[in-house]
Design goal:
The protein has about 625 residues and is an alpha+beta fold. The protein contains 18 helices and 25 strands. The strands form five sheets. Strands 12, 15, 16, 17, 18, 19, 20 and 25 form an eight-stranded mixed β-sheet that branches. Strands 1, 2, 3, 4, 5, 6 and 7 form a seven-stranded mixed β-sheet that branches. Strands 9-10-8-11 form a four-stranded antiparallel β-sheet.
């Protein structure tokens, strides 16, 4: 069985003005879709809400559907007879793109049935055949929007441009159930503007409102967009295309806090839309509009995918002055790595769920993640459930900074999903509650996590000089003492801890100078001694924390030996047995060849400086 989906559409701004060359903006109505299935059958058979029976006996309202099916059968050389089942949730005859969505879903399902690739051009051309039968002279707008993932701007004769929407909140749509002729409304306006300059002026203003709304949609400026909708409604009223019921519904929506409300489509009946910034206003509008013929379009992003790279500290963060507020004892400095990263998807769901590397996580892991997510929920006032799926392209929790890239990717996706638009600095202030080192993975190159009243991270240097890091994996298994617990134990029980903090503060100042001067020798020496001092402080804790394994020592001594032979390489380690070698891109090959006698090649990852966290895609 082959199933294909298309959705409805709603016009946000620009109806009527579009006839005079201005742009109109339409939004895909994801909440309302059509699904079509195609299967072999004894006769050509149609099954939809309007009709169930042989295609040859279908009523004339389905002429568009039958014509398109015949045309596709011809093009794809389908000789067998088919049963086509159409399940549409889009009300027909309401300007919501029902006919285009139905026809387009059928076309996609038939191509899928024949396993033939369908291009966008072929799809639109075939939809046009159906739309010409249904509407006479279609603009082509519906065919595009019912298959689009983004809002679109449509201009007569100029085609369609996608708009990257940052809108959030909800659009409530209410059917007045008054049937009106769009054709008549268009003709009446044409007469009106011939006689009356003021009407011409209203029409121009309407067109300009529509075009200036594009920027507001891209910026997610809901308030301004709402005001433009209110102005558009007044102008449409002046052009005599509103209706007393439309006016009443608009007033009711505005009275309960909608940011804007107006008719959509031809007017004099049809549908009304209200723009609502949150769930509270949405529900208030639904209550005031109290009707069965009412739909809600969720404008919020439904799926975001982000990527953040791991970072390795050259001056480490080890210990919290304030555990609850996650204030480190000292500032730290790291290098972001290009080859190690986490990809995270956040999507709207009917329950909270966290999946890591394809495995659904249990209560305690999930609770930690969702406590973090609740900070974003609180800021955005969006309370819906989400599914989080993260994939690390390297071993998790083995001292390779997976929590750093993990929480940085999660924070980046959440910032977008919850439409907060926080700057990276602000985002780093929240990210620390997931993991301190994750603040640094938001940025690329050399990054500092600055100790302060509210600690924050920033890019210190882009690292676009001859720098590389070789990651040597000695053990891929999850460590048995978490860094959080190891830090705490070191702070409370190690007599060397105060000396570590004092020294780290000196290291950070000196390493900054070395980076600015591109002094690789000093950079490497500080990196190596800082890591060993961190491990010395934790070995002195009670009970001791020993992340070293026999091979760790072998590699450390090997690096030391290479260094003595004149190669520029220095070792660092984190909360695990694996070793990272800071070196020059120009010396990587020699070092890796030398390492081959000690370490399996599969355990060696060659990294260059990496970029900051980014959004990979969204819909
Ligand atoms: C660092 N590490 O600077 C140090 C060096 C490991 C060794 O930061 O408790 O997972 O979640 O803030 O960030 C690892 O600790 O600790 C870490 P929390 P995190 O990279």
């Amino acid at each position: 069985m082959n199933e294909s989906l298309s959705h409805g559409k709603v016009i946000l701004m620009g109806e009527h003005a579009v006839v005079y060359g201005y742009g109109a903006i339409a939004i895909p109505l994801f909440s309302h879709s059509v699904t079509t299935t195609v299967e072999k059958s004894k006769a050509d058979f149609l099954d939809c809400s309007l009709y169930k029976g042989k295609m040859m006996n279908a009523p004339t309202q389905l002429n568009n559907v039958c014509e398109v099916i015949t045309e596709v059968k011809k093009r794809l050389k389908i000789d067998e007879t088919l049963k086509i089942t159409i399940d549409s949730q889009i009300p027909s005859g309401r300007g919501m793109g029902s006919s285009a969505a139905v026809v387009s879903s059928i076309i996609k399902a038939m191509y899928h049935y024949k396993q033939i690739f369908l291009t966008q051009e072929q799809l639109l051309e075939l939809v046009h055949i159906g739309e010409t039968i249904a509407h006479g002279n279609p603009s082509g707008l519906d065919g595009v929007v019912v298959n689009s993932k983004t809002p679109v701007l449509f201009k007569r004769g100029k085609g369609i441009v996608p708009i990257q929407s940052r809108l959030h909140g909800y659009l409530v749509i209410r059917d007045t159930c008054i049937v009106a002729s769009t054709k008549q409304a268009v003709a009446d306006i044409a007469e009106l503007i011939k006689k009356d300059d003021k009407s011409r002026d209203s029409l121009d203003q309407l067109g300009k409102l529509s075009e200036s709304s594009i920027r507001l949609i891209e910026e997610g400026n809901m308030k301004e967009l709402g005001l433009k909708m209110i102005q558009a409604q007044s102008l449409l009223k002046l052009l005599y295309v509103s209706h007393p019921l439309i006016d009443q519904l608009v007033d009711k929506a505005l009275a309960v806090g909608a940011l804007g409300a107006k008719l959509t489509g031809g007017g004099r009946g049809g549908c009304v839309i209200a723009l609502c910034q949150d769930e509270i206003v949405r529900d208030a509008v639904i209550e005031r509009w109290n009707d069965e013929n009412l739909w809600v379009l969720d404008l919020n992003v439904r799926r975001v995918e982000s990527r953040a790279h791991a970072n390795i500290a050259l001056v480490k963060y080890w210990g919290k002055e304030d555990e609850e507020q996650v204030i480190p004892y000292n500032s730290s400095l790291s290098l972001t790595l290009d080859k190690l990263y986490t990809d995270t998807i956040i999507e709207t769901s009917d329950k909270d769920e966290f999946v890591l590397d394809g495995v659904k996580q249990g209560k305690s892991e999930s609770e930690k993640i969702f406590r973090f997510i609740d900070r974003f929920r609180q800021l955005s006032q969006r309370k819906n459930y989400i599914r989080i799926a993260s994939v690390n392209n390297f071993p998790t929790a083995a001292g390779l900074a997976s929590s750093a890239s993990g929480f940085a990717a999660l924070a980046t996706a959440a910032n977008r999903y919850f439409n907060l638009n926080l700057s990276k600095k602000k985002l780093s202030e929240i990210t620390r509650f997931g993991s301190g080192s994750a603040t640094r993975s938001l940025f690329g190159g050399f990054v500092i996590w600055q100790k302060d009243e509210i600690p924050y991270a920033y890019e210190f240097d882009s690292a676009d000089w001859d720098i590389a890091m070789i990651v040597v994996i000695i053990n891929r298994e999850k460590k048995d003492v978490s860094s959080k617990e190891a830090m705490r134990r070191t702070v409370y029980t190690s007599p060397y801890y105060p000396a570590w903090v004092e020294n780290a503060q000196i290291d950070i100042e000196n390493i900054k100078k070395a980076i600015k001067k591109h002094d690789f020798k000093v950079l490497g020496e500080i990196t190596q001694s800082n890591a060993l001092r961190m491990h010395a402080s934790m070995m002195a804790a009670i009970p001791p924390i020993i992340y070293f394994q026999p091979q760790t020592l072998t590699v450390l001594r090997f690096v030391d030996e290479l260094n003595k032979r004149g190669l520029e390489c220095y070792a660092t380690m984190d909360a695990g047995p694996n070793v990272k070698i800071l070196t020059r891109q120009s010396q990587v090959r020699v070092i890796v060849d030398e390492l081959a006698s000690l370490i399996d090649q599969k355990g060696i990852i060659i990294c260059n400086p990496g970029e900051g966290a980014t959004i990979l895609n969204e819909s």
